[in-house]
Design goal:
Helix content: 55-70%
Order of helices and strands: HHHHHHHEEH
Number of domains: 2
Number of strands: 2
Radius of gyration: 21 Å
Strand order of the largest sheet: 1-2
Distance between the termini: 31 Å
Length: 207
């Protein structure tokens, strides 16, 4: 059984969700305005549109009194939110004030102090990996790929490591039986992987 699994009175839980939605929806409305100028094919518009739909589903689910299984809805919000730029309200680091509000909200929903601590610890967990390449860079990287930039060009534009991102030649130049192979630099390869992750998320939640 999960450490956070607990029977919480339905009305208490719904009240907590309503409070959460009331706090988040002004920022969501701002996102709806931000993406209007972008074409439908732009990765930011596609991502934010899917993100807003999931929050709308959550609001409808709460308004209906949790009348059906919501499995996967919170996961969808989290996975899409992981690629949102810094303005997203669902990405850490959060302010002390926000953390306290969220902790109080979960406490009022019936969670113990220990469980609230675990929830907030997980919510504030920063993204792993090298700081210079973040999941939120995937949006601009995908835009450049759509404009037919190479992965090396994308890395040159978006990576701040200061190293060259030209293709690397692998193999033994003195062995005539083995030709040299061109390989992406480590940073360019990470951007290739990052774009692939975003493509997978957009495809996953587009249906």
């Amino acid at each position: 059984m999960d450490e956070l699994e607990q029977e919480v009175p339905l009305e208490q839980a719904l009240s907590a969700y309503r409070s959460l939605l009331d706090k988040v929806e002004p920022a969501l409305a701002q996102w709806a305005v931000i993406i209007k100028p972008y074409p439908a094919t732009d990765p930011l518009r596609r991502l934010v549109t899917l993100y807003l739909r999931r929050w709308e589903k959550l609001r409808n689910w709460v308004n209906r009194g949790a009348d059906e299984d919501h499995a996967g809805l919170f996961q969808a919000i989290a996975e899409l939110g992981n690629f949102m730029p810094e303005l997203a309200t669902t990405r850490p680091p959060f302010s002390d004030e926000h953390n306290q509000e969220m902790a109080n909200l979960h406490g009022s929903a019936g969670f113990t102090d220990r469980e609230v601590g675990l929830i907030m610890e997980r919510a504030n967990k920063r993204e792993r990996g090298r700081k210079r390449i973040r999941r939120t860079d995937a949006i601009e990287a995908m835009r450049m790929q759509m404009a037919e930039s190479s992965y090396s060009q994308i890395a040159d534009a978006l990576c701040d490591c200061g190293k060259s991102h030209k293709h690397l030649l692998r193999g033994n130049p003195h062995d005539p039986d083995k030709g040299l192979e061109r390989q992406l630099s480590p940073c360019a390869d990470r951007f290739r992987d990052l774009i692939g992750q975003l493509e997978d998320i957009l495809e996953k939640y587009s249906h």
